[in-house]
Design a protein that fits this description.
The chain has about 120 residues and is an alpha+beta fold. It has a single domain, classed as OB fold (Dihydrolipoamide Acetyltransferase, E2P) (Beta Barrel), CATH 2.40.50.100. Helices cover about 20% and strands about 35% of the residues. The protein contains 4 helices and 9 strands. It has a 6-stranded antiparallel beta sheet with strand order 1-2-3-9-8-5. It has a 3-stranded antiparallel beta sheet with strand order 4-6-7. A hairpin with a 3-residue loop joins strand 6 and strand 7. The chain is globular, with a radius of gyration of 13 Å. The mean pLDDT is about 95.
């Protein structure tokens, strides 16, 4: 399941742009590889992030995995519901399992990210 309206990083994060806000989460491929997610560590609202930087962690029954920022900007929201229910990242990675919302600092924030077809090709190799 790879929605066509999203952009993807090589580290398996996705980005949805709505007006001037980008919603970020992890892909279905990533949540499946991680296994049952039991803890989510996200940055605070107001933090500034750089594309490619580590911005948090996902802990699963298998391992701990870093979350990388696919774009640069200021965090305007975090999914606080994941504190009590981190498993939503597994059950709905492209919906209720979103991680953060960012006001991008770059004019073209999705430059360098993959479209759905390219991401599908990357994970199938």
């Amino acid at each position: 399941m790879i929605p066509e309206d999203l952009y993807y990083s090589q580290e398996h994060e996705w980005v949805r742009i709505d007006d001037d806000i980008a919603t970020i989460g992890i892909t279905d491929f990533a949540q499946d590889a991680l296994g049952d997610i039991v803890y989510v560590d996200l940055p605070a609202v107001g933090d500034t992030i750089d594309a490619g930087s580590v911005i948090g962690e996902l802990e699963s029954t298998k391992s701990v995995s870093e979350i990388f920022a696919p774009i640069a900007g200021e965090i305007v929201a975090r999914n606080d519901a994941l504190d009590a229910g981190p498993e939503v990242v597994n059950s709905d990675p492209y919906g209720e399992g979103w991680l953060i919302k960012v006001r991008p600092s770059d004019e073209n924030p999705v430059e360098g990210l993959l479209e759905s077809e390219a991401y599908a090709a990357m994970i199938s190799t």
